[in-house]
């Protein structure tokens, strides 16, 4: 029997003319057969057919079937044929993408681009849709344009392969990078154009732009620069400041870019006053005290936003999690003054239903929960939630910590606190080497776990071997020995010191065996008391070059000119307050520490050491942080015994006064070697900022610093008692680089001693690789 067929075009035409020209008479389908498929399952085709075996097929249903099969994107041709009551679905499949390659591309990672194209729908293993090739070309060009490469050419080509597959190749000619040749600001009167351009990240080519790439145009960077410009004017009182559409033009050869920014400054406004209105669930004076703008001040958008945030946080601390505060301005254009009304809508008081923790595959829930200061069942408190986040982050167990407070469905006064974390490795096995400019080569090995079995306990075994110090130590700490957060730790250690390899320090060697216990008692969120006790045995060895006061010490304790062995029970006590926002890269807050160490009458050594440190960080901007640090130490002996010289204070080196050799600032023996003192004074001022070109990488930063300090007493080279004398302090200034590398912290400094004396040991370049216990 002759076949009847209805092509895709005929079917669609038949549907449009509403059956005025039918391809065949309706018939009852005895069977359905699919022909032409290679990869597609027959069941997929059957699922799109609007007719089953035994039903009647009309041309409307046929047209619908063809349309549905085309819509799948699997086929480039579909035909329906009829043979003796059998419906034959004849298809021609579209080719599948077997591989995607990029030719001539150097600027981007191929894997990253493939991931981006996959989001467009073009990926290996998928059906080829030629319309996506044009979109892919445009997307690739857009990526190049974002990097200032406007001369790029991208052509997509396809090559047939066996089994109805194709290879897609993007041929790229990148061309040269277009550079910004000029940036002009039109309409600036209150400020010099040069000063405004200094606010921009974008700039014309300079000696460092090959690294920063800030001479390459980017729409995102320009948008950010314009917002910085707007903030600058708004913070200086120009309330009506506006930016007209910036003009960006490129030369015909697509090599040079010119940017013109048209601005309208408007008038400068001062604040005439403010008031608080609306529903006030807290005393009005509490809110008005938080407003940073006062009558007579020049208007500042930054201070206005800061005031709104402080007021919202204050309401949040009392449970009003969804408080809304709007600052409504009232302009007096004649007087060029503005008054603000802070409209307060606190919303309903909110309570926390439950705290949910997610993402911790190894760390136990209780380790995170015990750091939470927001409690379940209590009212929402923004400051407690922020403090909870800080405490969880300070555990250093997680790459990222997020806290969200979604409303409980079906309620108006409850939220959940969802804590999500992303764990990171907390254990390490390391064998390595470091180098210190003071100690030379340091070989080290350690096995440590800061989150033992997910309990939060810390266990470490460390071995460090240097030319001066050799340490073997085993430590265990339980940070929550009690539910109140009292920590308990144990230490067993051996520490050997040999100063014969330090040219500027008097020679001696000691071997210390010790075992100790530590307690940390938190007084509140910021203050902690530290208590400790340790039993130690000191073995002191001297030689012919050891100074006379070292020999005198040995004989005072029953030894000889070659050395002595002493036993001691040492007690430690300390107090610390820490408000820093980060332990690794602090930008604000302060750290205070007072510490006392004493050798008790139970042992041979009877001495005491007192020290105090105050360190504060000031955020000058988003990238610059100022650190000020001051340290003072004082010690002595009692009971007729001197202070052990190997417990003396020392100054100079990478951790105190850079530019001077380690431990050399202070009293010296008759040979000119440093012997340390019973007093110490150190001060540091350091400005931290990102290394140019490092972007947002917080593991690498530079600093400019000035150091001051020295050690003093107890006696000078003539045997006279030595007090702290400011004329004996040493000064230095320089620059430094700190890098938290995968191999440990690296510190470099280049310092210039300012008032070095003739017998001082200077060291302009100092560095330390790795860390020593």
From TrEMBL:
GO terms for biological process: Gram-negative-bacterium-type cell outer membrane assembly; protein insertion into membrane. Keywords: Cell outer membrane, Membrane, Repeat, Signal, Transmembrane, Transmembrane beta strand. GO terms for cellular component: cell outer membrane. Residues 27-94, 95-175, 178-266, 269-347, 350-424 form the POTRA domain. It is found in: Cell outer membrane; Membrane. Residues 1-23 form the signal peptide. Part of the Bam complex. Part of the outer membrane protein assembly complex, which is involved in assembly and insertion of beta-barrel proteins into the outer membrane. Belongs to the BamA family. This is Outer membrane protein assembly factor BamA. It comes from Sulfuritortus calidifontis. The gene is bamA.
């Amino acid at each position: 029997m002759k076949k009847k067929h209805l092509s895709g075009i005929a079917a669609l035409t038949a549907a449009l003319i509403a059956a005025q020209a039918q391809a065949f008479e309706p018939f009852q389908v005895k069977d359905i057969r699919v022909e032409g498929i290679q990869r597609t399952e027959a069941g997929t085709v059957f699922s799109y057919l609007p007719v089953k075996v035994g039903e009647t097929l009309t041309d409307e249903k046929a047209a619908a079937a063809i349309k549905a099969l085309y819509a799948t994107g699997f086929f480039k041709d579909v035909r329906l044929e009829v043979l003796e009551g059998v419906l034959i679905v004849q298809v021609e499949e579209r080719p599948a993408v077997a591989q995607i390659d990029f030719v001539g591309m150097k600027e981007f990672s191929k894997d990253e681009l493939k991931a981006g194209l996959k989001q467009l729908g073009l990926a290996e293993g998928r059906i080829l849709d030629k319309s996506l090739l044009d979109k892919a070309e445009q997307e690739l060009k857009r990526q190049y344009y974002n990097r200032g490469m406007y001369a790029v050419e991208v052509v997509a080509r396809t090559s047939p392969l066996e089994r109805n597959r194709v290879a897609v190749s993007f041929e790229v000619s990148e061309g040269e990078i277009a550079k910004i040749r000029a940036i002009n600001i039109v309409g600036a009167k209150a400020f010099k154009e040069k000063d405004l351009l200094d606010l921009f990240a974008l700039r014309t080519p300079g000696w460092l732009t090959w690294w920063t790439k800030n001479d390459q145009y980017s729409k995102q960077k320009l948008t950010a620069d314009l917002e910085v410009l707007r903030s600058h004017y708004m913070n200086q009182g120009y309330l009506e400041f506006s930016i007209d559409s910036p003009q960006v033009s490129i030369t015909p050869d697509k090599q040079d870019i010119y940017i013109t920014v048209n601005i309208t400054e408007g008038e400068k406004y001062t604040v005439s006053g403010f008031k608080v209105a609306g529903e006030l669930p807290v005393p009005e004076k509490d809110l008005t005290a938080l407003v940073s703008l006062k009558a007579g001040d020049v208007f500042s958008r930054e201070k206005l936003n800061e005031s709104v945030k402080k007021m919202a946080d204050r309401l949040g601390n009392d449970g009003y999690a969804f408080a809304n505060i709007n600052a409504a301005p009232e302009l007096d254009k004649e007087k060029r003054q503005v008054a603000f009304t802070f409209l307060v809508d606190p919303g309903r008081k909110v309570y926390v239903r439950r705290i949910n923790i997610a993402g911790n595959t190894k760390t136990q829930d209780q380790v995170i929960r015990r750091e939470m200061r927001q409690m379940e069942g209590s009212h929402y408190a923004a400051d407690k939630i922020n403090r909870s986040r800080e405490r969880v982050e300070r555990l250093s167990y997680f790459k990222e910590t997020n806290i969200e407070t979604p409303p409980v469905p079906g309620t108006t006064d409850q939220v959940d606190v969802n804590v999500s974390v992303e764990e990171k490795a907390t254990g390490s096995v390391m064998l390595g080497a470091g180098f210190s400019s003071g100690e030379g080569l340091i070989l080290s090995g350690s096995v440590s776990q800061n989150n033992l079995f997910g309990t939060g306990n810390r266990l470490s075994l460390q071995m460090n071997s240097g030319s001066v110090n050799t340490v073997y130590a085993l430590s265990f700490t339980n940070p929550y020995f009690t539910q109140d957060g009292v920590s308990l730790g144990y230490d067993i250690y051996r520490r050997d010191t040999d100063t014969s390899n330090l040219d500027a320090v008097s020679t001696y060697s000691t071997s210390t065996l010790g075992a100790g216990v530590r307690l940390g008692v938190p007084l509140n969120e910021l203050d902690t008391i530290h208590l400790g006790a340790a039993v130690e045995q000191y073995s002191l060895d001297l030689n012919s070059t050891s100074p006379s006061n070292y020999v005198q010490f040995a004989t005072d304790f029953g030894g000889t000119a070659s050395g002595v062995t002493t036993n001691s029970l040492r007690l430690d006590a300390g107090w610390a307050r820490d408000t820093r926002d980060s332990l690794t890269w602090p930008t604000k807050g302060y750290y205070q520490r007072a510490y006392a160490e004493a050798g008790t009458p139970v042992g041979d050594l009877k001495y005491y050491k007192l020290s105090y440190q105050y360190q504060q960080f000031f955020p000058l901007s988003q990238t610059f942080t100022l650190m000020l640090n001051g340290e003072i130490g004082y010690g002595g002996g009692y009971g007729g015994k001197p202070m052990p010289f190997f417990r003396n204070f020392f100054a100079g080196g990478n951790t105190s006064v850079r530019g001077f050799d380690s431990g050399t600032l202070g009293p010296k023996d008759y040979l000119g070697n440093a012997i340390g003192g019973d007093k110490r004074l150190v001060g540091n001022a350091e400005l931290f900022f990102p290394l140019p070109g490092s972007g947002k990488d917080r593991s690498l930063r530079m600093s400019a610093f000035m150091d001051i300090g020295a050690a003093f007493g107890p006696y000078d080279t003539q045997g006279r008692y030595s007090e702290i004398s400011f004329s004996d302090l040493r000064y230095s200034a320089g620059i430094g680089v700190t890098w938290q590398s995968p191999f440990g912290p690296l510190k470099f400094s280049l310092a210039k001693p300012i008032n070095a004396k003739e017998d001082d040991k200077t060291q302009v370049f100092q560095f330390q690789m790795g860390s020593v216990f």
